[in-house]
């Protein structure tokens, strides 16, 4: 029965613009179970013929059948599948993986078999084959630890591991001494006796003598096809003089299947698989093994990604920390807060600025709270500046504010360190009570609790009823805990010294002509009382209580309702102050949310800039990965050719190098995340710079790392997968 049949096979190589014919119409047939020697001088075309018979190359023209299936029209991946199932190669230069053990080299074709065994079963089977070729004690040795003959035996075991029906040996004894050559050739005879068809490619007549059929190739054509007695005295192993069919021998003895089963040491002639699939795909195992065998190169490849991801994580966390500090500072001033200031005045053509006019009243605050439905809390504010005295200690706080209990609600400051807030009753009665911040407590009451004790503000005695919780500095660096809060009526009428006043205590302008005069801010249409003389006004000032406040703080229920509330407040105050349409308002409304959004946008822009810079470095790291992978593909060209020769398809090579690149980037990304987090913690500990971890950034870093590996690893992987196995095996 024919295993190989070739009709008018031709192969022409094109070198530049010149066609070089190598095979010139070769026709032959080889029966199953024969041992044939292709003999010829160097350049005769015998190796090219072997490559075509082994499906490593395809002919320019002609037809080739292997085991009844035509091979000529098959593509590269289809030929690779045939090699994996039916053909084993024994190369002259052994072509073993230098940093793999003997058993790992033997297992190599199993990674690309259509039905793969589990790693444990594959290793057991490979070890059994090494025992069959006399290397049972060398399974864990690398090629550098073995002699040439032992390396060739490993190559033979590798060729047999997929149970091929055709074994091709290219100059199998070319690099061996005469004694080892005889041992190897006798092993081929044993394999042939077991039922495997063997084709030896040689230029040495002594090697050809071990085959019972010799085909001489001269100048790309078959010159002769001779049969004869083999050099070994075992006639049975030769298959009979003249190449008698194996079927005839099988009638008298065991069948080829039984002989193969006996050789492999199992009960089946040609199983299609050796066990269950491995949890980890073979391509992943191959890629991880390659990375493990080249630790230094792998580490240098991942270094760029490590640095880049660490920079991304560190910069992002520092930026997020800064953003959080800004948001915390703004939030400490009160979330969803709207501030209403009194207007400005002009003196001698000079604008005195916001809050220099007397325009806002407590009634304005009350009406805003009553008529604006979205307002959840409102607090009028009166400011003063004075020295605090307690015993032999004194202190000047940043703020002395007169307000209502709702001030703490507006400022989100409900937590008290000690005591409690004064009440609305204290505001109505003008009681001399106050609460103080932690900074004031530290300076005036360093050792004892201040609750219930007295302090003086402008020689007015106040009883401390509570201590505010710590607030910290605001967004411009002012200490918010350096504050005293008291009922606004007490501050207005007792501390500021303007119990009966016509001016704003925080922004009044005086002149000689305005001393003790009254200013009717909102004059009635007609006077109800007779006017007094100037001397009466100067000598007997009438206590007309026109009460103003410096500022009104408004807390809106939600951020979405802020603008509508501002519009309502503006319309209400213009109506109350009788401001004609089109005239300039005598008050100013400021939205803290706008300030928060502006600062947040600024911080976000800075963070984005840092992220872009880090991403650029990540791209640079990706380019480094691509360069290293390109070098790796070039360096491992022979390995790629070997893998293709033993059955690897193009997608196996593509996937292997892609996996290597992605694993490098993922490992680099993970290491970079750890280093970036460490750098962030060091920055926070050593220089007290705020940082904040971001899970989104960490996930993004991992995804970007994988993306960089796929993106920059694809071209080297694609280039490797497009390699011609013939050219790759000859690469030096």
UniProtKB/TrEMBL annotation:
<keyword id="KW-0067">ATP-binding</keyword>
<feature type="compositionally biased region" description="Basic and acidic residues">
    <location>
        <begin position="234"/>
        <end position="247"/>
    </location>
</feature>
<dbReference type="GO" id="GO:0016887">
    <property type="term" value="F:ATP hydrolysis activity"/>
</dbReference>
<dbReference type="InterPro" id="IPR003838">
    <property type="entry name" value="ABC3_permease_C"/>
</dbReference>
<keyword id="KW-0472">Membrane</keyword>
<keyword id="KW-0812">Transmembrane</keyword>
<dbReference type="InterPro" id="IPR017911">
    <property type="entry name" value="MacB-like_ATP-bd"/>
</dbReference>
<keyword id="KW-0046">Antibiotic resistance</keyword>
<comment type="similarity">
    <text>Belongs to the ABC transporter superfamily. Macrolide exporter (TC 3.A.1.122) family.</text>
</comment>
<dbReference type="Pfam" id="PF00005">
    <property type="entry name" value="ABC_tran"/>
</dbReference>
<dbReference type="GO" id="GO:0046677">
    <property type="term" value="P:response to antibiotic"/>
</dbReference>
<comment type="similarity">
    <text>Belongs to the ABC-4 integral membrane protein family.</text>
</comment>
<dbReference type="GO" id="GO:0005524">
    <property type="term" value="F:ATP binding"/>
</dbReference>
<dbReference type="Pfam" id="PF12704">
    <property type="entry name" value="MacB_PCD"/>
</dbReference>
<dbReference type="GO" id="GO:0022857">
    <property type="term" value="F:transmembrane transporter activity"/>
</dbReference>
<dbReference type="InterPro" id="IPR027417">
    <property type="entry name" value="P-loop_NTPase"/>
</dbReference>
<dbReference type="Pfam" id="PF02687">
    <property type="entry name" value="FtsX"/>
</dbReference>
<dbReference type="InterPro" id="IPR025857">
    <property type="entry name" value="MacB_PCD"/>
</dbReference>
<keyword id="KW-1003">Cell membrane</keyword>
<feature type="domain" description="ABC transporter">
    <location>
        <begin position="4"/>
        <end position="244"/>
    </location>
</feature>
<keyword id="KW-1133">Transmembrane helix</keyword>
<feature type="compositionally biased region" description="Polar residues">
    <location>
        <begin position="528"/>
        <end position="537"/>
    </location>
</feature>
<feature type="compositionally biased region" description="Low complexity">
    <location>
        <begin position="500"/>
        <end position="520"/>
    </location>
</feature>
<dbReference type="InterPro" id="IPR003439">
    <property type="entry name" value="ABC_transporter-like_ATP-bd"/>
</dbReference>
<dbReference type="InterPro" id="IPR003593">
    <property type="entry name" value="AAA+_ATPase"/>
</dbReference>
<keyword id="KW-0997">Cell inner membrane</keyword>
<dbReference type="InterPro" id="IPR050250">
    <property type="entry name" value="Macrolide_Exporter_MacB"/>
</dbReference>
<dbReference type="GO" id="GO:0005886">
    <property type="term" value="C:plasma membrane"/>
</dbReference>
<feature type="region of interest" description="Disordered">
    <location>
        <begin position="229"/>
        <end position="267"/>
    </location>
</feature>
<protein>
    <submittedName>
        <fullName>ABC transporter permease</fullName>
    </submittedName>
</protein>
<dbReference type="InterPro" id="IPR017871">
    <property type="entry name" value="ABC_transporter-like_CS"/>
</dbReference>
<feature type="region of interest" description="Disordered">
    <location>
        <begin position="500"/>
        <end position="537"/>
    </location>
</feature>
<keyword id="KW-0547">Nucleotide-binding</keyword>
<feature type="transmembrane region" description="Helical">
    <location>
        <begin position="653"/>
        <end position="675"/>
    </location>
</feature>
<dbReference type="GO" id="GO:0098796">
    <property type="term" value="C:membrane protein complex"/>
</dbReference>
<feature type="transmembrane region" description="Helical">
    <location>
        <begin position="695"/>
        <end position="715"/>
    </location>
</feature>
<feature type="transmembrane region" description="Helical">
    <location>
        <begin position="606"/>
        <end position="633"/>
    </location>
</feature>
<keyword id="KW-0813">Transport</keyword>
